[in-house]
Amino acid sequence: IKITSVPTKPIEGQKTGTSGLRKKVKVFMQDNYLANWIQALFNSLPPEDFKNGSLVLGGDGRYFNREAAQIIIKIAAGNGVGKILVGRDGILSTPAVSAVIRKRKANGGFIMSASHNPGGPEYDWGIKFNYNSGQPAPESITDKIYGNTLSIFEIKIANVPDVNLSKIGVTEYGSFTVEVIDPVSDYLELMKYVFDFELIKSLLSRSDFRFIFDAMHAVTGAYAKPIFVDSLGAEPDSIVNGVPLEDFGHGHPDPNLTYAKDLVDILYGENGPDFGAASDGDGDRNMILGSRFFVTPSDSVAIIAANAEAAIPYFKNGPKGLARSMPTSGALDRVAAKLKLPFFEVPTGWKFFGNLMDAGKLSICGEESFGTGSDHVREKDGIWAVLAWLSIIAYRNKDKKTGEKLVSVSDVVKEHWATYGRNFFSRYDYEECESEGANKMMSYLRDLISKSKGGEKYGSYALQFADDFTYTDPVDGSVASKQGVRFVFTDGSRIIFRLSGTGSAGATVRIYIEQFEPDVSKHDVDAQIALKPLIDLALSVSKLKEFTGREKPTVIT
Ligand code: VG1
Ligand code: CO
């Protein structure tokens, strides 16, 4: 194949955030914007990580993915990659990319997605790079890529024709090969290995159990029918918004109480189903609902961990260890303590779990941001979480006869609270604030914690400590600092402040609030009511209104 060197110039601002590089589509469509970043990536990797090697390419089907795929393929070939495995029509969910990298022993892979951010010509696009065990590239690599975007001068492009992405099969261009693969089969095979499909089938085929899955017109639309309907016997009409669309049907493909409101209304409506779930743009997030019941992601990971050994064959010898991101509630900590498992608290972002998994220290982990997963891949996994919950419910009901009352999602959660206590949790998001005000607020808070002392009174709470979270990776010793300002009180309550690293405009402030309640008689209180004093405290301590001008959060989860 012939390779052309195309001259280019550095472009400012190509720094990756919590999960890849995310910008408005229009920004990515500027000349060489994407090409520069892809070339900078190859300039950052040691040649043995890609020369004559294979890379996986897929995405969530959003607007601009088709053009982007052709650009990425040509630059990969231009840099000496031997083979690209690409999902049909450019489709692969984030966890599926991770699964394919692992199964096919690829050197890494690209995910074309801005995850839960809206798509379409006016909205967002994004790109993530994952490494050879399927994990998001560590900061050591993403920092290098950023450095190289600032000194780039040429792009190496192979003169290969546009690849027909809609046809499964292998095409060779001299020393370079493209294989278009089925987006579902490797992933489905892995799910069949992890879960007891017969057990789940026994639940989904019951006439007294009704299931609904909302793919939000995003990537899990491609997975839902083959997995839930064809392999597990769910009713075809149990899948809603099941066709991936370039603009997600004008939706915001984020499975939470605000953006998946249609699904929430169905579950909270008259005679609603028994189980509801949704996933995000790229299929790594999940929301789990029961009849008139919402499972917080922080509780969800704790409950999956507590029940995994019994209900999920992959964990039949018990999980190796558990982990959560720092702002995620301490519900999981209690499970780890009871099961006597190693436990880790990492910064926000899935990339911090990978090393622990590779080192055999971690099996099940989660984030409060609707991310749950395990070491079956190196990404959070929406469909995995739904199958984990279905397994738990199926296991609890396997001996129930038709007509007997089934153990419901809310029964499982309430029993869990009764055993472990309830960690009330809520997150307030203030999206797209002016960056200046948001940054000033964070500096103000950092200044405040530097002067704070244990024992200080904050309303009725006494401070245990306040800091800006720093994490030292126990496997490779790398340090991540400034990962969130936290105030931890003597009763275990916490308020935490962070700025989002996934937005494409302005600054999004996130406030996380948590309080532990051991008393069962208080477990049924609404979280917003239980947490009101702490929420008020968080707002006054941070002077959020003053700094951002915001009266109300845009999203509450
Ligand atoms: C958010 C979440 C974080 C998650 C990240 C990527 O990051 O808080 O927990 O890992 O999104 O998720 P931030 O920096 O905006 O808070 V996804 O589904 O966008 O890949
Ligand atoms: Co996502």
TrEMBL record:
EC number in record: 5.4.2.2
Record GO cellular component, one term: chloroplast
One GO-annotated biological process of the protein: glucose metabolic process
Record PROSITE patterns: PGM_PMM
GO molecular function: magnesium ion binding; phosphoglucomutase activity
Domain called Alpha-D-phosphohexomutase alpha/beta/alpha: residue spans: 14-151, 186-289, 298-420
Reaction catalysed by this enzyme: O-phospho-L-seryl-[protein] + alpha-D-glucose 1-phosphate = alpha-D-glucose 1,6-bisphosphate + L-seryl-[protein]; alpha-D-glucose 1,6-bisphosphate + L-seryl-[protein] = O-phospho-L-seryl-[protein] + alpha-D-glucose 6-phosphate; alpha-D-glucose 1-phosphate = alpha-D-glucose 6-phosphate
Compartments where located: Plastid, Chloroplast
Keywords: Carbohydrate metabolism, Chloroplast, Glucose metabolism, Isomerase, Magnesium, Metal-binding, Phosphoprotein, Plastid, Transit peptide
Major localisation: plastid
Named cofactor requirement(s): Mg(2+)
Phosphoprotein is among the record's keywords: yes
Entry's family note: Belongs to the phosphohexose mutase family.
Subunit-level organization: Monomer.
Annotated protein name in UniProt: phosphoglucomutase (alpha-D-glucose-1,6-bisphosphate-dependent)
Organism: Aquilegia coerulea
